[in-house]
Structure formats: C-alpha cells, structure tokens
C-alpha cells in the first residue's frame, strides 16, 4: 500500500516541493499519496500546480490531494509534516518591531528572545490542535515530523501534551558540518585553490562529527578528519577562512571562549546569548551586512522572508514554466524527513541529528528537555544513543535556554501571563537589555498586538489593555535597529533574478546559513 504523507502549511514557497522531491527520489516511495493542507487557497493552489508539474515531469505514480480542511488532509496519514508559521509575516514583524521599542534588537526572532517566545505562544496551541486531529483521524502509529520553529518549544509541547509520536527536524547540524569541511579543506591546502596542482578536496564524508546540545545551540563536540581529531584546530581554521572570518564573527568568538563551534548562523546565535546585541553601538562590529543573506542584521530573516514572498508571487509564472527538478536518489537534500521515512519503510539504516526528549542521553541537561543529538533510524524506529555530558560551558549555555523554553511552553499551554513574563525576564538578551517594568510592559504590548493568534490569553485581554492604557509608555525608542537593511523592491530584485529566486526558495524554511561558497569564490 502507498504511504500517505500529509503536509500542514503546504503553501511554503520551496520547502514543500523540496521534501516531496526527496521522498519521491526513493524508488520504493514513488507512489506516495501527498495530502497538502494550507489555510491560504492561493498559496495552496500555486504550490500544488508546481508540485504536480514536478511529478508529471518525472513520470512517477505519486498523487496529490489538497484541502483547506485539516482533518480531511490528516485522515489516514502515516506521516505528517508541519511547515507552518502561525500569524505569518504580519505577526513576525510584530515579533521584531515591538521589542525594538524597548531596545531588544533581534536578527531572526524564532527560537528564544522576545520574538521566539511569542512565536511559541502562537504556535503551541496549534501544535496541540494538530496533535488532537492526528490522534483522532490519522493512522494509529503516525509519525509527526515537526519542521516549524521554535523547534524545541513546539516539540516539547507536542510530546508533553499532544499524545502523538513526534520528532523535531532541523538542518543546522548539516550546515555547520559543511562549513567545518570547507575550513579543514582551506587549512589542508594552505592557500591552494581548486584546480591548483596538489589541491586536496575535502568532503563531508571525510569529516566525522559528533554534535549534541539543543536545537540552534548544538555543539560540535568532536570533529575528526581522516581519523585524527581536528576539534582543537577549528578556531585557527575559522579565523583564517576568507569568508567565515567575516560572516561568522560571533560563532568564532563563542568557539574561542567555549572551545566548540555551534550550529547556528551568526545572526541566530547573536540573540540567544547576552553578550553581542545588548549595546546598540557595538552590534555592527559583530555582524556582516555585506551580501543579500543574513549574518546578524536587524530583522534579517523577516526581510528575506518578505522579499521571498513578494518575489515568488511576482515570479510564479516563470517558476511554473521552468524545467522540473529531476527526482534522483543522488540529488536529495540533506533534510532528515525523507531519510527517516525511507529508513522506517525499508529498513535501511539512517544516522542523523534529531530533536527528541533527553531521557538521559545528555546527563548534564534536564531529563525532560528537548535535545538535538545523534540518532539512528531503521524499521524499529528512531533511537538516540547516550552521548554523555556536554562540556560544562556548553551545557551552561544550553541550560539557560532550556529554562526559558520550559516556562514559555507552560505559559503557552495554560495561558499563564505571569509565567510568560518570567520567561521574558530569564531570556539572556531580553534580561541584558531591559529592566523588569520594561519587560512587563513589552509583554503586555505584544499580547495585545498579537491577540488574534493567542486564544489562550483571551481572558486576560481586557485587563492587559487597561493596564497599558494606564501606564506611562516605556517603549519609547524610535529606531529601525542598529543594522537594518532595507527590504528590496521587486524592481531591485529583478536585477538579480537568479539570486532572488534562490533566496525565495530558501527563505520559507531557510538554509539560514545562506549559500556556502568555497574560499576561492569568496568576495
């Protein structure tokens, strides 16, 4: 029998088609039934037209059904992919712009910090609604594959309160692994470029890693190249690299002070810790705004997502007439989803890094926390081996974030305003920038502005509005941020159409490390 894969939030620009292509690149899965669901009929129709074109162009027997009714799409599903952004770009802009008034300058705002916490408040009620539908209408052993941020909070809520088999999936480990490979290649070749005599190419297969921690704060605790430990040489390599030395200054500084490289991009990492974005005048020395991707700019991911959405709607006819991508086993992406499904359905063993409940895998992180760690998949399921303790400094960084996540999840599930405000207080960057009265008022302002997506706080809304009205405004900064890059117009994007198309494809579930170039191509 063909498997059924339901996709919630299927209207994402490129991610739905990428995951579909990955699954259909497996010969045994080419008759998969995809059930696309989205609340936007327009987005659903556009993505379905492109996906159907891809299927027909590759002459595979897969089929697509679509529905704006979620339960209809989930009925009888074996696997469920969650690609949603609750509140869309409208809510996302509030996550960035309201905290700016209080001095909290974010780059991405989707994991912790003010934006990430509020993103979780919007997402978690829906995660639990998805889980309820999965329990009631999907197959009894259905697997819920969550790609939506905030990854750890969503997965924590789903496993604790959703009652379904769920795993969180991210590609940050793969992105950092690719960077480390290029750094080692640069060190090994000592200035030689591809094509030069004696140049030695280094691939990811040559570099073995152990990476563990929590999502977006996962640490490369062991790096081996040709059987030798290179963990201690990474700082030298990143400092010498012609591109990463400019675009990853914060990651390099963390590597310098904690001894291990972290998975997420410069912009992501900058807002998870209290040290790099708390003084407006100092932010620019830690970031790079030299190209079209995100290396720490204020509201950078919001800009890229906005440009991607606008470009896709404008360029859609060209996407539709372009040649479909070829479904080949060799051309699959590194996204874990298809590899997990393949392993479960065929028994082929897959090793990846997954977001799961800790349960002792990393003893110096809480048992109940959602960790990101190596795992193995076969017909028996997803299995996480014992990793061991993280280095104490790395564990301390993770534990700070876990405390915020725990409170934010409980606040979202129970609609607890006081707990929500306490999670903001404990957030590393928010706490470094704001005093308690500012935090209390900022949360009130965000609750009111985002109330349409926060049903669990509805009973508090009238009191929150009255409190805001009676208090002196503390969010008085009038700023676009320390490093805001203007959102490009359609006319500007047309001048670099190929790049715009590539960024649009990446922005909805983003290769947030951006395009990775080999050293000789760095600008």
Protein described:
The chain has 523 residues and is α/β, with parallel strands linked by helices. The chain has a domain of 148 residues. The chain is 46% helix and 13% strand. The protein is built from 20 helices and 12 strands. The strands form 3 sheets. The protein has a 6-stranded parallel sheet, with helices on both faces. It has a 3-stranded antiparallel sheet with strand order 7-8-9. A 3-stranded antiparallel sheet has the order 10-11-12, covered by helices on one side. Helix 1 packs parallel to helix 13, helix 7 packs across helix 8 and helix 14 packs antiparallel against helix 15. The chain is globular and about 65 Å long. The C terminus is likely disordered.
Strand-helix topology:
Blueprint (H helix, E strand, L loop, with lengths): L3 E5 L6 H10 L8 E5 L3 H18 L4 E5 L2 H5 L4 E4 L5 H14 L11 H25 L5 E4 L4 H12 L2 E4 L3 H18 L17 E8 L2 E9 L2 E2 L4 H7 L3 H4 L1 H10 L7 H5 L29 H22 L14 H11 L3 E8 L12 E9 L2 E3 L8 H23 L2 H10 L1 H6 L2 H14 L11 H10 L19 H5 L2 H11 L16
Parallel strand pairs: 1-2, 1-4, 2-3, 4-5, 5-6
Antiparallel strand pairs: 7-8, 8-9, 10-11, 11-12
Helix pairs in contact: 1-2, 1-13, 4-5, 4-17, 5-6, 5-14, 6-14, 7-8, 12-20, 14-15, 15-17, 17-18
């Amino acid at each position: 029998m063909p498997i059924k894969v339901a996709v919630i939030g299927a209207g994402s620009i490129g991610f739905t088609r990428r995951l579909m292509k990955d699954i259909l690149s497996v010969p045994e899965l080419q008759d998969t039934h995809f059930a696309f669901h989205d609340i936007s009929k327009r987005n659903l129709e556009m993505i379905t037209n492109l996906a159907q074109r891809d299927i027909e162009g590759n002459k595979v027997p897969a089929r697509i059904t679509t529905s704006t009714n979620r339960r209809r799409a989930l009925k009888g599903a074996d696997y469920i992919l969650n690609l949603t952004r609750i509140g869309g770009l409208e809510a996302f802009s509030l996550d960035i712009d309201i905290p700016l008034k209080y001095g909290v300058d974010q780059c991405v705002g989707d994991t912790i910090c003010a934006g990430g916490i509020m993103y979780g408040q919007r997402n978690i009620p829906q995660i639990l609604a998805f889980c309820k539908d999965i329990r009631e209408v999907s197959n009894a052993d259905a697997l819920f594959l969550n790609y939506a941020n905030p990854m750890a909070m969503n997965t924590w809520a789903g496993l604790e309160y959703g009652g379904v088999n769920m795993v969180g999936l991210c590609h940050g480990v793969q992105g950092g692994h690719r960077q480390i490979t290029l750094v080692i290649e640069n060190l090994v070749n000592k200035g030689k470029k591809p094509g030069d005599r004696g140049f030695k190419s280094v691939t990811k297969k040559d570099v073995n890693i152990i990476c563990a921690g929590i999502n977006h704060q996962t640490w490369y605790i062991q790096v081996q190249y040709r059987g030798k430990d290179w963990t201690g040489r990474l700082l030298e390599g990143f400092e010498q690299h012609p591109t990463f030395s400019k675009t990853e200054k914060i990651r390099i500084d963390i590597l310098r002070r904690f001894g291990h490289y972290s998975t997420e991009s410069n912009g992501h990492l900058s807002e998870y810790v209290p040290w790099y974005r708390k003084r407006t005048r100092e932010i620019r020395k830690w970031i790079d705004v030299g190209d079209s991707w995100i290396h720490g700019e204020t509201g950078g991911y919001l800009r890229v997502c906005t440009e991607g959405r606008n470009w896709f709607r404008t360029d859609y006819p060209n996407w539709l007439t372009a040649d479909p991508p070829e479904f080949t086993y060799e051309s699959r992406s590194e996204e874990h989803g298809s590899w997990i499904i393949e392993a479960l359905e065929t028994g082929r063993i897959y090793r990846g890094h997954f977001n799961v409940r800790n349960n002792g895998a990393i003893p110096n992180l809480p048992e109940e926390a959602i960790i990101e760690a190596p795992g193995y998949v076969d017909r028996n399921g997803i299995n996480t081996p014992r990793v061991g303790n993280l280095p104490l400094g790395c564990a301390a960084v993770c534990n700070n974030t876990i405390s915020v996540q725990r409170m934010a999840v409980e606040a979202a599930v129970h609609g607890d305003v006081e707990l929500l405000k306490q999670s903001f207080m404990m957030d590393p960057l928010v706490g470094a920038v704001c005093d308690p009265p500012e935090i209390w008022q900022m949360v009130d302002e965000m609750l009111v502005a985002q109330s349409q997506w926060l049903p669990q706080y509805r009973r508090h809304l009238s009191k929150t509005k009255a409190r805001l009205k009676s208090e002196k405004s503390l969010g008085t900064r009038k700023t676009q941020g320390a490093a805001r890059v203007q959102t490009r117009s359609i006319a500007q994007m047309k001048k670099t159409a190929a790049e715009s198309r590539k960024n649009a494809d990446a922005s909805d579930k983003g290769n947030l490390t951006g395009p990775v170039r080999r050293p000789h191509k760095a600008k």
